[in-house]
Structures are given as C-alpha cells and as structure tokens.
Amino acid sequence: MTDTWVIRVYGIVQGVGFRPFVSRLARRFRLCGSVCNKGSYVEIQVQGDGSTCQAFCQALPKEAPPRSSILKIDVNREAQPPYEDFQIIESIKEAGETFVSPDIAICDACKQELFDPANRRYLHPFINCTACGPRLTILDGMPYDRERTSMGKFPMCPACYEEYTHAETRRYDAQPVCCNDCGPEVYLLGRPERRHEAIKETRRVIAAGGLAAIKGIGGFHFCCDAANEDAVGRLRALKHRPVKPFAVMARDLAVVRRECVTTEAEEAVLDGHQKPIILLEKRPEGRISPVVAPDNPFLGVMLPYTPLHLLLFSYPDGQDFPDALVMTSANPSGAPLCRTDEDILALTDMCDCILSHNRDIRLRADDSVMMFYEDEPYMIRRSRGYAPLPYLLEGMEGHVLGIGGELKNTFCLGKDSLFYLSPHIGDMADIRTQEALRESLVRLEELLETTPQLVACDLHPRYETTQLAGTLGLPLLSVQHHYAHFVACLAENNMPGPAIGLICDGTGYGTDGTIWGGEVLIGDYHGFQRFTSLVPYDQYGGDAAAREGWRIAAALIHACAPEAAGSIVETLGLCTAQEFATQRFMYEHRLNCVRSTSTGRLYDAVSAILGFCRASTFEGEAAMRLEFAARRWQKQKKTAGEDTLPHGSGPYIRTDALIREIVKKRLAHADPDYLAWFFHDRLAGLCVAACVAARAQSHIETVALSGGVFQNRLFLALCEKKLQHAGFSVLRHHLVPANDGGLALGQAVRAAVYLQEQE
Fold this sequence. Notes:
Blueprint: E1 2-12, H1 18-28, E2 32-37, E3 42-47, H2 50-63, E4 69-80, E5 86-89, H3 108-114, H4 158-164, E6 186-188, H5 195-207, E7 212-215, E8 220-225, H6 229-239, E9 247-250, H7 253-259, E10 260-261, H8 264-270, E11 277-282, E12 298-302, H9 307-314, E13 324-329, H10 341-345, E14 353-357, E15 369-373, E16 376-381, E17 390-392, E18 399-402, E19 412-415, E20 418-421, H11 431-448, E21 454-458, H12 464-470, E22 476-479, H13 481-492, E23 499-509, E24 515-524, E25 527-533, E26 537-540, H14 543-547, H15 549-560, H16 565-572, H17 577-589, E27 593-596, H18 599-609, H19 621-637, H20 655-667, H21 672-698, E28 702-706, H22 713-725, E29 729-731, H23 743-758
Family: Belongs to the acylphosphatase family. Belongs to the carbamoyltransferase HypF family.
Pfam family, one: Sua5_yciO_yrdC
InterPro entries: Acylphosphatase-like_dom, Acylphosphatase-like_dom_sf, Acylphosphatase_CS, Carbamoyltrans_HypF-like, Carbamoyltransferase_HypF, DHBP_synth_RibB-like_a/b_dom, HypF_C, HypF_C_2
C-alpha cells in the first residue's frame, strides 16, 4: 500500500474541462493517481513525495479552468494500492452536495473555428467545447454526462467521438460535442428551409425589416433590426409594450462602444463567459432607434453568446445585415419564456419566421440583466450564466425550499450549507408562469437530489406562491416579505447579523396586516423587530393604485390639505375633476383603502406630482422617470448630495413633511428635475437618520440595504455615502437582486435556521 493524498474538490468542476486539467497538472508534477467525477465533487488521488503533493494541491485552485468555480477543497491521506500512471476514471454517481454548471457563452477558440473554412465545424450552429456551451438548460440528471442531457439522442460521429474520449483534446468529455456531420440542426418552423438555408432566410427576413423568433440556449427571442424604427414599433404593438425598454444584442464590442459609454469593467463582463445584458449609458450619436428605449438614458446591451447568434450577424452570404438586433423574450404578455416549438407556434402571428432547432431545452433560462455600481456588477435579474451557482453558508444543515415572491419569481433550494437560486421564472399572475414554476422546481430538485423538509413562503395569504407552497405537502414557514429581503442581503454578504436593515421596496404584507415597504428593521437570521417605517399613508384604489401614481399623489395631498386638495390636484394636472370627486368619495367613506408604508408607491406619487409619469405602463416606470430627472439635475448642477442629515421626529420617518415640502415647491414653480433630485437626497437623509436612531438603541454599526427601490443607483449611492459618513459599515447586494428576484434566498436561509432552532 502507498501513502495517497485523496483530494475532493467541490464547486463547478463538471463540464468545464476540470478532469483533463487535473490530468495535465498531475503529469507536470510527475504524480501517479487518478481523477474521477463523483457527481457531487471531483475526487483526485495522487501518489508522490509530500512536498510535491502539497505543491500540486496549491496549484489546483490557482490554475483551475477559467469556467470552473471552486467552493472548497478537502484533503485527506490514506493507504491505497500503488498507481503506475495518472488516469481519468469514468464518472461514478454518489449522493451528496451537487454542483450544476450554468450555461457558458461561446469561447474564443470555438469562435475562430466557427469561421475557419478549413475547420470541419465551419459555420456549425452548435459548436462547443469543454470551455463553453449549454449546461443547465440541457441537463436531465447528474453527474453531467451526455446520456443524461438532451444531447443523448444524437450519436457522435467517429471524429467527434475521438475528441470526446481523448484527454489531450479541447473537447474531451464535452457532453454537447457535435459537428456538421452529427448532432442537432436548425430549421424554419413550418417551412422547408433547414440548416444553412434556414439561417440565410432568417437573415434576409430581418434585414428586410421583418420580425423573427429565434431559439437560443434557454428559450426563444423575438428579434428585429434595432435601427429600423418601423420594425421596432411593430414589435412593440404586437407585444403590447408601448414604452418598456427592449434589450439589444450588438455584433461586437465596437458596436457597443459606438452606441454606449463603457468602462473596462463593464466590457470585461460583456465579453466574458456569462455575457449578461448590461445597462449602459447611451451615446447621443448612436444609430439604434430611439424607440428601442424611449426617453431612457440607458440601453440594455449584450453580445452574442451562442454560435447561432454569431452566424446571424456574420454568415458569409453577401447580405447586408444590421449590426445591432432587438432581442427580447418570446412569450405572450405575462407568460413564461417560450421553450418548445409547440410554445412558439402559438405566437406565429407575431413574427415572419421562426428559426428553431431540435436540441431540447430542459429548463428555461432568461438572459441575466445587470448594471454596474462602483465599477462592480449589480444584478437586476439573475438567470442565464449565473443560475444555479450556489451560495455557501457554512454551518447550515437541512434541506429547505424558499418558494419566492409573486413578482420576478425565483425559488431557492437549500441543501445543507449550499443555497441554489433558480433562474428567473417571472410574475405569478399568469397560470402558465405558475406551471413553469412547478415544472422548474421539480426538475431542479431532481438535479440537486434534494427533497425539502420545509418550505418557506411569503406572509401574504393570497399570493399564488403561498397557495403553491401549501400544496407541496410540507411543513410551511411564513416569512415576512421585507425580512426576507433583509436576510437575503445578509446571506449574500455571508454576515448572519445582527444588523440594521434599511428596506426600501414596493409592497409586502406586514405582520400587522397593513402594506409595508419602507422599513428599518433590527435583526439577524433568527428574527427581527420593526424599529420604524415611513409615515403610514392611505392607499386608495386597490391594484389600480399600484399602476396609477396619481391616485396615491391625490390621497397624500388630500391628507395634507383636505380643503385645498381639489385646487392643488387641478393645478398639478394629476386628474380630472370627476376623477378627483370619485377619489374624494373613497376618502370620505374609507372605500378600497389600505394603510401603506411603501417606498415604491411614494416614488410613484412624487413622479406624478412632478409631472413625469401620471400612470405606469410597466412596473417601475414612474420611479425610473423620477430617477432619470434627478440624474439630469445632478449631472447639470454637479450636485453630490448633502452630508448633513435631517432630524426625524416621533416614531416615523417623516415622509409626510417631505411630500408637503415638494408640493409647496412645485406650486411655486420650482424646476421638476431639481425637485426629483431633492426628493432622492432628502429621503436618503431621513432614512439614514432613522438608522442612526436604531443604532442608538441597538448599538449595531452595520446596515444592510435591500428592496426593489435600491435598483435606483442614485438613491443607493446617496444612502450608502450618507451611512458611511455617519460611521456605519454598509452591506449591499452584488449578484443577488435587491428586488424580489432575491427574495427566495432570504426565505430559504430563514427556513434552514428555523430547522436548526427546532432541534
């Protein structure tokens, strides 16, 4: 028997060329042994002198493939029979921690081969290698081997099989490997064109101003020339999306630089292996139609991440083709992303051709969306390229599910110390999205080999997610919405607390039965207390008030000055006399009224008062327009914000006084852009003053910022800088969305802690 170092590597080490890398590294160090994929980890056994084995262990994380992600390495020493050389052993399935790789954008080496006429994969729409290609979206089971993917039905040709089985090649053990002689093919749905003819015809349709549906890695996109105003307008009409921005796919970085202002950090992620959509500042001289993102200083841009996208832009057929395309999710309004030919067939009246393929998508994955804050990624929608990378929280035990929220739904599976956030699912108002949630949940549970012991859901009793959680046959834990936001921020920063939570959000059901959304909490993973909130106000009109900020504005003005409210509302042009008469009747009789502390709805009201957005056509529109106005003022006047903090009075954050002041200034004809900035700055100051008061009571020096309003980078910066000026340590989100897309992580962590508390 020989002294053997047994090394277990946990993380994203499947489907990224990890075993061939280990084999090459071992041979460089002249070590004998083996490497094997165990499903939940990669096990390496090496035999040699102690110093060499130690050096090998140190080199593993430093030199690992760029697409891998190592969470931990365990090393033990055992007596094993001697090895004569170093071997790559076939996968062996074991239960335990499971790591599923996200989909990976096409690598540079495959790009070169794609357009090399001498290469046998020339113009092949599905070219990939161990460093790139689909992963999660084609996966049936673990470990990640071809027979457990949707590529299992495609036999490899002899040449591909040779590459697949030889460790010295770039395609060793690359499960989606294929070429022009084997594997999937593209076709036009309902038409005879297949393979290259299908691509050429799709290019012709788009170049002529038509609309196409295109199947990607995680679902279908609707696509058109981003510079063609008529085509973009037609797409808007068909999608019933009058002003909500569309995302754009640019041919290359040169096009992005022409259209947008970029930094090195943004370009590195744009052109990295995840290739998310990034919100970038528009250049006024750009060629993309202004109707792509009307009245918006930012443009959501991504680069091609599949070989098929690259072929759309650069197929050598002599056609003139646009260098920027609108790429937006192909789905009926409110429904999930189309995944199959059957799904997209229902939308044939929305496009002129459908470019599909026969590689099945097992799990939907929308494009991830992010912006940059302080030169770092700040996630808005976490999906393709990032999900389901887990978060490691040492010391947790048990299997749990966080079912997520009603909007921007994701779910989170906690498996002991690992917490897996799902790709973006969508909004639960549509029954098809509810079914997509059920389907995705079952699939990810199977992939991760977990059966939750407990499901955490929102406190709201009428949420569809709450109803779904109740049908799973599991013990149920209700977690207050904003506390879940708070815990999600703590968990992402690996800080269990205690901390002060400044949660600025839209709406969430409070423990007192009212609607919360502007909260200062004190707590940790175990629980919280509500220290203070915005001054509660009456929100009349039910769901209509969430869309029509003028209703909330009118109610706030009526509460401040009931006798003069009618004339003020008329002067500000908030609504007609008849509309206000209806509202006044509701005020007098307390009809269709809830108490609210929502920061998001306060933004809607101020946006209406200042004349930016009376009613929203999409979620967040009013708040976005208010932020853009404040940015205009800040940019023109170079106003950075005040370091002095306003003093609060009483138990609440006095936003009622702030609204009175803004109305007064507006009636005195103050510049609306200035008032937009004034609102941001003063609200941030009031919130920070409340945190100072919470510190005086709790002696806690850390503040966690979460909730959808913190997607507003101006408000985030004002709060963070004022908090730091006041001596606080500040936690904020990074790759977990501050909005409801991160809610499930907080739910799942709270559920895991609850299980431990019951022991």
